[in-house]
Design goal:
By secondary structure, the protein is an alpha/beta fold. It contains 13 helices and 10 strands. This is Glycosyltransferase 2-like domain-containing protein.
Length: 325
């Protein structure tokens, strides 16, 4: 029986220093039935030329050059081009273990979504690795996606460390929302998850996710636009959870609310305390908040404060908490 083809999609934008190592980790795969699609998203640092050079190494590598349009547009063009039975997304500055694809394929007979393991790699300004941390799975290694959604929540957001079935993506015309500046990958995943039930975790398929120390202000990363996009994602997720996870949707929803409270508390500079207050109020009134005994006592207290509209207390707590880090 012929082995199934895997399409590996890598958006490329100004990653000349890291791209070769990323591509090499794919060329060293024990599983050879794959195509590698490099989508150059209008790079200006020499990455475009490097993509063409890498394509000469292997006939498995296909390069697409396009005007800069963002990671979602790059992934969408990759999906339009992909010929594989399965799809894998890899970021251009990360690497995968040499049995990554083989183990995914072996596990694919049992589920419509296969989730790998992820190791965070922290790199300082001199390019030296100073910390490695393997994320731990909390859910059973296989089961019903919706029954274990809360245990899987930290693994269901981004598109990396996953194996998708291309037939499901094509049948339902699933694509990344190019209008979103954040959470576009989560919105794509919600769309995919609607049409599956089973998942499997393949712990030995290791994805190494690199974090590079930079001095970019959080205020340039998280803005009122990104907050609006996060709210859009929350609306979609809430509807998704109520439909597919009726017994746990409130717990998961509160978990996500707390996550955004932490995320936007970090903003300073142009993002004032009064702006953060408006964010807190908007999150508190997005959907009804219910205290859940499964949550920690601290999270329960935050929910109570939001229910009582004591938004300033929440603002002071999270801003103070961030500054103490």
């Amino acid at each position: 029986m012929e082995k199934p083809l895997i399409s590996i999609i890598i958006p490329v934008y100004n990653v000349k220093e890291q791209l070769t190592e990323c591509v090499n980790s794919i060329l060293e795969q024990s599983y050879e039935q794959y195509e590698l699609i490099l989508v150059d998203d209008g790079s200006t640092d020499g990455s475009s030329e490097l993509c063409d050079q890498l394509a000469k190494i292997s006939s498995k590598i296909h390069v697409i050059h396009k005007k800069n349009g963002g990671v979602s547009s790059a992934r969408n063009i990759g999906l339009d081009t992909a010929c594989g039975e399965f799809v894998v997304f890899v970021d251009s500055d990360d690497i995968i273990s040499n049995t990554y694809l083989e183990l995914f394929i072996n596990a694919s007979t049992e589920a419509d979504l296969v989730i790998g393991s992820l190791q965070d790699i922290y790199v300082d300004g001199n390019g030296c690795i100073y910390k490695k941390k393997l994320r731990k799975h909390k859910a059973p290694l296989k089961g019903n996606l919706f029954e274990e959604y809360y245990s899987l929540i930290d693994w269901l957001r981004g598109p990396v460390a996953k194996l998708y079935r291309k037939s499901i993506i094509d049948e339902h015309h699933l694509r990344f929302d190019e209008s979103l500046s954040v959470a576009e990958d989560q919105v794509f995943n919600f769309s995919y998850y609607r049409f599956i039930t089973s998942y499997k975790i393949e712990e030995d398929s290791l994805y190494q996710y690199f974090h590079y120390d930079t001095k970019i202000s959080l205020s340039t990363l998280y803005t009122e636009k990104t907050f609006s996009d996060d709210l859009f994602k929350m609306e979609i997720e809430y509807s998704f959870l109520k439909e597919h996870c009726p017994t746990s949707y409130n717990t998961i929803y509160i978990y996500q609310i707390i996550d955004l409270l932490n995320k936007y508390a970090a903003l300073e500079d142009n993002f004032t305390t009064s702006s953060y207050y408006k964010c807190v109020k908007r999150l508190a009134t997005l959907h009804p908040l219910v205290v859940d005994s499964i949550l920690s006592s601290k999270k329960q207290l935050i929910v109570c404060l939001l229910q009582m509209k004591l938004y300033w207390i929440v603002v002071v707590y999270y801003r103070y908490k961030f500054r103490r880090r």
